[in-house]
Design a protein that fits this description.
Blueprint: H1 5-37, H2 46-79, H3 84-97, H4 100-106, H5 109-121, H6 126-137, H7 146-159, H8 162-166, H9 179-192, H10 196-209, H11 213-223
Helix pairs in contact: 1-2, 1-3, 2-3, 3-5, 5-6, 5-7, 7-9, 9-10, 9-11, 10-11
Length: about 220
């Protein structure tokens, strides 16, 4: 199995495009079925339109959820394999080659900031990273997300500068995927404020959860 960055990225793009094509065919066939089998055959009734609307809505939701799972598989390269160089190549290839008409729906804020983190870990400075993000995100640059929190917190940890972690906007809700990141933000704040007890508590929570091993490594480094 080819596990080169380019192949991984191409497979991600092809999977989403193939799923969208299949979904479009399902919607068209479903609409045709409704026209010829519901209400008065051969005519478009209110019932046909309603059913078609719900079929399309369900298909869109399915594609968005499936894409989120696909993105999680890509995050595995950075957060579990801990291969920042490979992750950077994968993420930037996806961003550069993903159809522009579909980016808004299928390339999330989290994906962009996971890319930013991979760039930070491979030697890029924040100024260059922000320029890159502005170029690919445009008006979405100020959107919030879990990996934006992680990026800013880790930037503060690396530079020992609180301005980045202080700029964090809290997430609206806490769940299993972002709790470890929120704890890391707390750990960075504690480290920069020289609060050893709070740091130890935050790191212990991160180690216990360990959803993303890379974040656990980040946290343990704060104690060193």
């Amino acid at each position: 199995m080819d596990t080169t960055p380019e192949h991984i990225a191409q497979n991600f793009i092809k999977t989403i495009k193939k799923r969208l094509l299949i979904s479009l065919v399902v919607i068209i066939l479903g609409f045709l079925y409704l026209i010829y089998n519901v209400g008065q055959p051969g005519s478009v009734s209110i019932i046909t339109v309603i059913f078609a609307f719900f079929l399309a809505a369900a298909t869109i939701v399915f594609n968005l959820l499936a894409a989120e799972m696909d993105r999680e598989k890509l995050y595995h390269v950075l957060f579990e394999e801990k291969d920042a160089d490979k992750a950077r190549e994968v993420f930037q290839y996806v961003i550069a080659n993903f159809p522009s008409a579909l980016r808004q729906s299928f390339i999330s804020t989290d994906f962009y900031y996971a890319t930013a983190l991979s760039m930070l870990l491979t030697g890029s400075n924040n100024h260059d990273i922000q320029n890159y993000l502005e170029g690919v995100m445009g008006g979405r640059l100020h959107d919030n997300g879990r990996f934006k929190l992680l990026y800013l917190a880790h930037l503060s940890a690396l530079t020992h500068d609180k301005q980045f972690v202080d700029a964090i906007t809290p997430l609206g809700k806490v769940n299993g995927l972002n709790k470890q990141i929120i704890d890391y933000v707390d750990a960075v704040n504690a480290a920069l404020n020289h609060n050893d007890k709070a740091l130890q508590n935050a790191v212990s929570l991160i180690e216990e959860m360990n959803v993303y091993p890379l974040i656990t490594d980040f946290a343990q480094t704060l104690k060193a």
